[in-house]
């Protein structure tokens, strides 16, 4: 293949410089699938429908990273990777917020139980 044809192929792919740009962008972007799946499972156990939706979308974008990479769309694969990363981090924040709310709820219930007297003038509190 001639040098002119090679340069034309690179320009058609959207690369303006020499072959080094293609070699740098030829690395498979991270897909964040593991983290997206873990946060989606945590959302399920926290009964968090928003986290399930966001996690499902993040898993979908993570799955598309490899597909775009195999098809040769490196910039689209990188874009899908960035979207998967952002959605996964958003889902981590949502799960953390729900866990903090659950912990506060449990602490309030424990404080309420401990502050209620077990014995009243009529007997035990559950007999009143």
Give a quick rundown of the structure:
The chain is mainly α.
Defining key terms:
5 helices, two-stranded antiparallel ribbon, rod-shaped, 2 strands, mainly alpha, 128 residues
Range of helix content: over 70%
The number of distinct β-strands equals 2
Average pLDDT taken over every residue: 81
Shape: rod-shaped
Number of helices: 5
Please state the structural category: mainly alpha
CA distance, first residue to last residue: 93 Å
Strand content: under 5%
Multimeric status of the protein: single chain
Cα radius of gyration in angstroms: 26 Å
Sheet having the most strands: 2 strands, antiparallel
Description:
The protein is mainly α. 74% of the residues lie in helices and 3% in strands. The chain is built from five helices and two strands. It has helices at residues 3-12, 19-25, 33-45, 49-71, 74-115; strands spanning 119-120, 123-124. It has a two-stranded antiparallel ribbon with strand order 1-2. A hairpin with a 2-residue loop joins strand 1 and strand 2 (123-124). Helix 4 packs antiparallel against helix 5 (74-115). The termini are far apart.
Break the fold down into its secondary structure elements and pairings.
Layout: H1 3-12, H2 19-25, H3 33-45, H4 49-71, H5 74-115, E1 119-120, E2 123-124
Antiparallel strand pairs: 1-2
Helix pairs in contact: 3-4, 3-5, 4-5
